[in-house]
Design goal:
Elements lengths: L3 E7 L12 H7 L5 E7 L5 H9 L5 E6 L1 H11 L8 E5 L5 H6 L5 H10 L2 E9 L2 E3 L2 E5 L4 H4 L2 H7 L2 H18 L3 E7 L2 E13 L3 E2 L3 E2 L10 E7 L6 H10 L8 E6 L1 E5 L4 E5 L2 E6 L2 E13 L12
Parallel strand pairs: 1-2, 1-3, 3-4
Antiparallel strand pairs: 5-6, 5-17, 7-9, 7-15, 8-9, 8-14, 9-12, 10-11, 12-13, 14-17, 15-16
Length: about 300
């Protein structure tokens, strides 16, 4: 009987040094599944997408070992394939927001055990200007901290690097020097025009371990839209941040809703972050939710609708 084929994509730079894992360890732990493995290591940004497009055509499983950015690239490759191939994720990044949401444990042992258990869920993704993102597209104050925090800090301190570098060094200067952008934002059931300080469309229970969302379903066809607008002074952003952390979305300055589509009209180009990586500078933008886009080995069944299977 011919063995099934699995492609393992590893980002060797992801995560804290002491948590780095080897391909041999992953393959050894997945040996009961009896796959024939091919292993590819990323060398630069965009590699994972290219690798999956080229090497994943004949595979029955695609495995990703890295952080949220590596998974983003992997999924962009998977969704370009002609067939639906399930994804196994072995998180080894600094924050691993999506792994936390999906109930995928950090550590090669627990993560591979979940894959061996065979529990697969369909997952919604966002489509941003022709590129897919897994769990968040954002712009505005502090949205670039995930990719501007030096890699060596991430490797040394893990998630705490964002706290030390982002909050301790960059956040306050960033807030006081920030210039909001005038936008027209259209979403399901609403249109708003104002100067915006921050915006995010997401499908996650956690953003950078700071924002926590309740009552999230990961395969309901909707993403959560969070907007911060119309502040009189930049320093007021600190109070808004505190409210969002407390899950208080009251007041005229905060919009929080669920939507399948977002259209943004903006004369100026704005920098975007997609799954913690730089997503380019864009003026007009359209974002839509792709329902049940791919299958991923995961837990946290309470976050998926029963009709997912």
């Amino acid at each position: 009987m011919e063995k099934k084929k699995a492609l393992l994509v590893i980002n060797p730079c992801a995560g804290v040094d002491r948590k780095r894992v080897s391909s041999a360890d992953i393959i050894n732990r997945l040996s009961p599944a009896d796959f024939e493995f091919s292993v590819e290591t990323t060398k630069c940004q965009g590699d994972a997408t290219t690798i999956v497009k080229e090497k994943g055509k004949d595979c029955d499983l695609v495995l990703c070992c890295g952080g949220d950015g590596t998974l983003n690239e992997t999924i962009n490759g998977v969704l370009a394939l002609d067939k639906r191939v399930p994804v196994g994720y072995i998180p080894s990044g600094s924050t691993n927001d999506l792994a936390s949401t999906l109930g995928i444990p950090v550590g090669v042992g627990p993560a591979t055990e979940m894959i061996l258990n065979g529990n697969v869920n369909g997952y919604d993704v966002g489509l941003f200007q022709g590129r897919y993102f897994n769990y968040i597209a954002s712009f505005g104050v502090a949205s670039d901290l995930a990719y501007t925090t030096p890699q060596k800090w991430k490797n040394l301190f893990g998630h705490q690097a964002y706290v030390f570098y982002g909050v301790g060094i960059r956040f306050l200067p960033m807030v006081f020097g920030f210039k909001p952008t005038y936008m027209k934002i259209e979403y399901d059931g609403g249109v708003v025009e104002d100067k915006f300080y921050f915006g995010a469309i997401s499908n996650t229970t956690s953003v950078a371990g700071v924002f926590k969302y309740d009552d999230i379903k990961l395969n309901d066809g909707y993403f959560e839209l969070l907007l911060v607008r119309g502040l009189k002074r930049n320093i007021d952003a600190l109070g808004i941040l505190n409210k969002v952390i407390r899950k208080d979305y009251s007041g005229d300055n905060i919009i929080f809703t669920r939507t399948k589509h977002v259209k943004i009209t903006c004369e100026d180009k704005v920098a975007w972050t997609l799954d913690g990586e730089f997503g380019g500078e864009h003026g007009d933008v359209e974002i839509e939710v792709i329902h049940n886009a791919y299958d991923i080995y995961s837990d946290n069944e309470k976050l998926f609708l029963d009709n997912n299977k």
